[in-house]
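Data card: per-record layout.
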Amino acid sequence: MILVEWTHIPGLAPYEATLAAMEARAEAIAQGAADEAIWLLEHPPLYTAGTSARAADLIDPGRFPVYTTGRGGQYTYHGPGQRVVYAMLDVRARGGDVRCFVRALEDWVIAALAQFNVRGEIRPGRVGVWVVRPDRPANADGSPAEDKIAAIGIKLRRWVSFHGLSINVEPDLSHFAGIVPCGIRDHGVTSLVDLGLPVTLADLDVALRSSFDKVFAEGPACRR
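The structure for this 224-residue chain is written out next.
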């Protein structure tokens, strides 16, 4: 059995110091000197640019601090009311399939959201988790409106993952207006509270912990 240490970091975790601590922990895991770890935290308002970020997608560069980071993906927002989950896991020990590992992270978010009767879905070519919005007007092509509720961006070093995912519980959704989130212009962003659910960060943490072992024990859908 793989031991995973769960840590809740209170308050608003400073980005640079937290990133340095996360990378140090990932290195210790790779060396066999520490157990895998999941960190649950919030950051102060900021934007991060992944390895595929495009300059044109940073609409308001002076609004919040902007950090260039080595994770995959494009621009994303972090801030109060959003659960950031840093996942430092040994991908080689969990099968060595990076694509399926990312799918497992998506499955994990979907399983957690299901505990609040929210149907999270994935879309080809769009990493992250989405919800259909039947309460919103349909798109120009007749397809239903969709909003993103969770973003995923990881990096691997010596087969150990770091960075992870962010799930919108009750962030200020107007803060996303300073970027094109994940480079996607034709869909919006939502949160659990925006969907009308009185969910707290603590509620989501319970759902994440209860669904983690089941999802990672069974393996993602691409392995079944």
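Known properties of this structure: The radius of gyration is 17 Å. Residues 83 and 202 are 9 Å apart (CA to CA).

See the next section for split statistics.
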